[in-house]
Amino acid sequence: MRPRVLRVDGREIAPAVTVVLVETEPEDATAMFRHAVRRTHDPERRLKDALTMLASAYYQYPGDFSDRLTALFARPSALADSLIDAGDCVLEFAQFNQRYRIVGAIKELASDDPAFQATFWHNHMFNPAMPRAVHVLAFVPDWSASLADPPV
Fold first, then answer.
1. Staple 125 to which of 12, 50, 89, 95, CB 3.0 to 4.6 Å?
2. What ranges do the domains of the chain cover?
């Protein structure tokens, strides 16, 4: 997903940010992602393996996923700093005829947080030039302030 990111007052922070869905207990998936990265240095093979892994069973059980979305940014990152300073934001995106506006808090994750590790290794499967120094931010939805159009 690449939602548009807005301040709660409606001012745009970023036209798009790539976010990742992370499992509630991501340790097994993180181990698979890490293995896929370390198994080959060939970026084409790594991409093929990642797509196969994610398409086969990873997203088949929606109940396994946290409602937090995560995003990875290289350090230093003015955008990550802006998001952290904002403290909350609105993510807007559309899928087919459905539009979403998710309001939530922004939290920087520690490197030992399982969601940080899952996001890092997930993104590393797709980015062979992954920087070592990164921010991983979590977007924690406030469902009472969020909406879908049309309602689901």
1. 50
2. 4-149
Q: For residue range 91-127, what is the model confidence (pLDDT) as tens digits?
A: 999 988 999 999 999 999 999 999 999 999 999 999 9
Amino acid at the residue 11: R
Enter the pTM of the model. 0.92
Residue with structure tokens 């409602």? Answer: 67
Q: Secondary structure of the chain in the HEC alphabet?
A: CCCEEECCCCCEEECCCCCEEEECCCHHHHHHHHHHHHHCCCHHHHHHHHHHHHHHHHCCCHHHEEEEEEEEEECCCHHHHHHHHHCEEEEEEEECCEEEEEEEEEEECCCCCHHHHHHHHHHHHHCCCCCCCEEEEEEEECHHHCEEECCC
Beta bridge partners of 20: 70
**Class of the CATH-defined domain 4-149:** mainly beta
Per-residue confidence (pLDDT) for residue 56, from 0 to 100: 81
40: which 2 tokens? 């080959």
Q: Whose CA is closest to 79, among 123, 21, 135, 131?
A: 135
When pLDDT is averaged across residues 51-64 and rounded to a whole number, the result is 86
